Structures are given as C-alpha cells and as structure tokens.
C-alpha cells in the first residue's frame, strides 16, 4: 500500500506545484503602484508626496519587491543588475526601456537620474509625463525645452551600444528571490496579512473554513444517507412510485441552487418562521442548529438528484455483471444477492463518489453562503475579490488545492483497502 500511495503522490505533487506556480504568477502580475498604495491605506498623506514615496518604497522592500522573482533570471546585459531596487514603477520602466533601446546603460541611468532630480526640484507636470512616453522620439520632443535634460538625452542617444542588448546575463538568486520567500511562508501556512483589514490571513481563512464545514459536513452526510437508500430503491424496485420519485428528482435537479436557496428564504419568511440572514455566528448550539438547518436542507435537496442517480447507476452496473446473473440462476434469494454480491461490489464507486463530492460540495456551499449570509469561505472569497485583496484570494485558492489533494489521497487509500488489486 505504501508503494501505491507514493506512486500517487509522485503523480499529484507535480500538478500541485504547477498550480502553486500559476497562483504565484497571477499574484505577482498584480503588483503595481496602486496596489502598494492600497497596502498602506491610512498611512499615506496625500499632502506630502515625498513622504508618500518613502512609505511606498519601504513597503516595497518589506514585500521583497526589490528582489528578483525566481531562483534564476535571464536578462539583457544592457539592463542594470539593481534595476529592481528602484522604487518608482515609472522610473524603473523608463530606465529599462531606454537601456533596451540602444544598450547605453550608463547614459540611460544618467538621464533617468537627472530627470528624477529635476522632477523633485521643480514638481513640473510636463516632466512627469516623460515617464509615460513610449518612444525615444517622444521623449526627445518632451525634453527639448529643458536644455540640461536635452543635453543628457542627446549624450545617451549618440553613444549606441547595441551589442549589450544582444548579450544575455544569466544570474542565480537562490534564497534571495520572491518565489522562495513566498513558498517558504506557504510551507509554514504563513500567508501574511490581509490588505483589507491587516488581519492574519491564516486566521481569517481558518475561521471562515470552520463556518463552511459546520453546515457542509452534515449536509454531505445526509446527502449520502438519503441518496444511498433512494438509489438502492430506484435500482431494485420498479413501478409507479419509482417513476414518480425519478420525475420529482429530475424536477429538483433542474432548479439552480441559487434559485432554490432564494425560494427557501422567501418561503420561510412567508410562513412566518422568523428566519434572519443576519443571525449567524451565535454561540448557542441550539441557535446554530436552527440557523444552519435551512442551508443544510437546501444543499441536501439540491444534491440528492445527482448523487441518487449516480448510486443507482453504480448498482445497475453491478447487477448486469455475470456473477450476479450466475447467483440469480443458482436460485439465491434477492436479499442474499443484494447483500453478498451487489452492495459489496457497488461500495467502491460509491465511496469514490463520496470523496469526489466532498470537493464539489464546497462549490455549492459557496453559493449557499452568499445567499444565506454565512461568513464562510465563499463570502470571504467574494469580499476579497471586491476589495482586490490578492493575498487572501491566493491563499484561499491554495487551501482549496490542498483540500482536493488530501481528498484524492484519501480516495486512493480507501479504494485500496476495499480492493487491494487496484493499481493507481
């Protein structure tokens, strides 16, 4: 069994690492000056631009944004090695653009440094616009009325060093790169702090996950408890009642979960049940039970049609196997055939369905949380997206990846215990 589990891990881990890398790439691509500004919030003083830039620069260093992205980098030799240390995004982008235009690194650095100095001295908006120019012709036109800047720019343009652009620079950064810092924190379950309220992300997610599991786990239990009996009945019994149950299940399955949730809220209000979507989070067990009963019932009702049909299909597949037909031909009783032949062989696909549905249940739980105002993972994800809280969003995605990995391994372990002949 250990060998089988190791084989499965070797299969899952590369995909998990790829998923982690994709999350990191998306997260990294979202860093910009506006995001850094939102990270500082009330610390910024819009009447003091110099102080603002220093705060942003300090925050940028705190987030290691002055470090390279990965363990190695391949850049042009024309680009300065320490370019990531420049705090201002526009200044850094302009310097890189000029360096890659003709390879004159020192000339580009002198011009950009002089331009930055003049902007600080004069606070001239026209000079600020030069950072946003796309071509050297536009930059030359923009500095033409400033003699010192124009002279520095002409010195840069006249000394072409195109060979620097063509020569690659390969550098290895080992532990001093952003991916290493991010991955090290990830292993420790340290996701940093939320940009929305400066609270530890792990604490926020654990609390939200607990609220989600409080009603999701009981819902999954009741879903399979009811679905097993329903699927078993539909696969064995035939008649008008069976047709009626199937038709009812088809009707329920056609109703979207969000509609079903809204229908139950409106119905509870119409019947005067006094349900309030604002009363979640009570410390009383009875209050929690009464408040979560409707979301649980909604999840169960929405999932029973699908799960029941899957179980019915699994049982029907086993019933068509030759060994079942042989048992019938031998004259064994229906009870013996069911308990000794059909159910044991249908157990494996039902267990696999159970673990697969645990991951799928989170999707349904997200919808129910949003409708019933439960402070779970779904609501936290929605709030984080609206607030552009990227660290929380990436952490939630990684949590879900981890949950899916654990469920996949549990499925394999249980499947192997039931049928050791299974090969992964």
Shape summary: elongated
Output the radius of gyration: 31 Å
Residues in helix, %: over 70%
> Span between N and C termini?
11 Å
Q: Would you count the extended β strands for me?
A: 2
The order of strands across the largest sheet is 1-2
Strand/helix succession: HHHEHHHHHHEHHHHHHHHH
Low-confidence stretches: none
Q: What average pLDDT do the residues reach?
A: 82
Number of helices: 18
Which sheet architecture does the biggest sheet show? 2 strands, antiparallel
**How big a fraction of the residues is strand?**
under 5%
Question: Based on helices, strands and strand pairing, what is the structural class?
Answer: mainly alpha
For this entry, give a set of tags.
18 helices; 73% helix; 2% strand; mainly alpha; elongated; two-stranded antiparallel sheet; single chain
């Amino acid at each position: 069994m250990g060998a089988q589990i190791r084989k499965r891990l070797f299969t899952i881990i590369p995909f998990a690492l790829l998923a982690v890398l994709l999350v990191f790439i998306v997260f990294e691509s979202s860093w910009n000056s506006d995001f850094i500004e939102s990270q500082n919030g009330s610390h910024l003083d819009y009447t003091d631009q110099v102080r603002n830039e220093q705060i942003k620069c300090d925050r940028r260093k705190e987030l290691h944004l002055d470090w390279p992205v990965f363990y190695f980098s391949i850049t042009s030799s024309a680009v300065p090695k320490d370019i990531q240390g420049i705090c201002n995004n526009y200044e850094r982008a302009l310097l890189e653009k000029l360096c890659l235009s003709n390879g004159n690194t020192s000339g580009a650095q002198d011009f950009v440094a002089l331009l930055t100095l003049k902007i600080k001295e004069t606070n001239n908006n026209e000079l600020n616009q030069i950072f946003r120019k796309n071509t050297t012709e536009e930059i030359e036109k923009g500095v033409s009325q400033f003699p010192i800047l124009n002279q520095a720019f002409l010195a840069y343009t006249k000394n072409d060093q195109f060979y620097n652009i063509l020569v690659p620079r390969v550098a290895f950064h080992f532990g001093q790169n952003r991916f290493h810092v991010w991955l090290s924190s990830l292993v420790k379950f340290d996701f940093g702090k939320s940009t929305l309220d400066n609270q530890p992300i792990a604490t926020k997610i654990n609390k939200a996950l607990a609220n989600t599991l409080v009603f999701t786990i009981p819902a999954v239990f009741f879903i399979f408890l009811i679905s097993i009996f329903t699927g078993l009945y539909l696969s064995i019994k035939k008649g008008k009642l069976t047709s009626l149950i199937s038709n009812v299940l088809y009707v329920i399955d056609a109703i979207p979960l969000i509609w079903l949730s809204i229908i139950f809220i409106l119905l509870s209000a119409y019947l005067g049940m006094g349900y309030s979507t604002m009363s979640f989070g009570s410390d009383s067990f009875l209050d929690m039970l009464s408040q979560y009963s409707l979301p649980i019932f909604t999840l169960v009702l929405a999932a029973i049609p699908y799960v029941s049909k899957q179980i019915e299909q699994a049982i029907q597949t086993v019933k068509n196997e030759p060994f079942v037909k042989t048992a019938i031909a031998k004259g064994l009783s229906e009870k013996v055939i069911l308990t000794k032949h059909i159910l044991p062989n249908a157990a494996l696909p039902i267990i696999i369905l159970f673990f697969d549905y645990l991951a799928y249940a989170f999707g349904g739980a997200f919808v129910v949380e949003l409708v019933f105002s439960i402070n779970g993972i779904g609501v936290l994800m929605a709030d984080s997206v609206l607030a552009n809280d990227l660290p929380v969003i990436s952490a939630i995605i990684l949590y879900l990846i981890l949950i899916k990995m654990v469920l996949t391994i549990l499925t394999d372990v249980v499947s192997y215990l039931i049928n050791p002949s299974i090969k992964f």
